[in-house]
Amino acid sequence: MYIGEAAKRSGASVRAIRLYESMGLLSVSRVGSYRVFSDADIKLIQMIKEAQSLGIQLSELLPLIDDQQGFNWIKVLQILEGKQKEIAGQIKALEAQYIRVGEYRQIIQQCESHVPTKKLKDNG
Fold first, then answer.
1. Residue ranges of the HTH merR-type domain (predicted)?
2. CA-based, 20 to 30 A from 116: which of 19, 71, 100, 109?
């Protein structure tokens, strides 16, 4: 199948597929000047898209591709473990921020109840 059909079947844009190929993430056979995609190519494109949706950069994927145009699954697991640790750290930071926002809301509400406030005129 050609690139347009590959884009439809994989869910990636033609531009994205060309980018994956230019970066060396994807090696597609050619007939003349036309790219001819196999079912294995479509699966690889879908995996690249899935990795991106997990927050993995295309540049991080390059070292994960082995010589047979497949993934080195040991390296993939290492990247995923690292990504999971990174996300856990972000969750902790967001939870702490969430608590601080709640504390500041309470402080402001206490201040508001003791200080008369003036309403601004609508100059509309």
1. 1-67
2. 100
CA torsion, ordered 44, 14, 55, 48, to nearest 10 deg:
0
Sign of torsion, CA 26 38 35 13?
Answer: negative
Q: Domain for residue 30, yes or no? A: yes
Q: What is the pLDDT of residue 65?
A: 81
- Whether the CB-CB separation of 58 and 20 falls below 8 Å is answered with yes
User: What are the structure tokens assigned to 66, written together?
Assistant: 């082995």
> Across-strand partners of 31?
34
Question: Does residue 124 lie in a domain region?
Answer: no
- Specify the residue for token string 């690249």: 48
CB-CB contact of 15 with 4 (8 Å): no
Q: Give 48-90 pLDDT, tens digit per residue.
A: 999 999 989 999 998 888 766 578 888 889 999 999 999 999 9
The verdict on residue 120 lying in a domain is no
pTM reported for the whole predicted model: 0.71
| Tokens, residue 107 | 């402080």
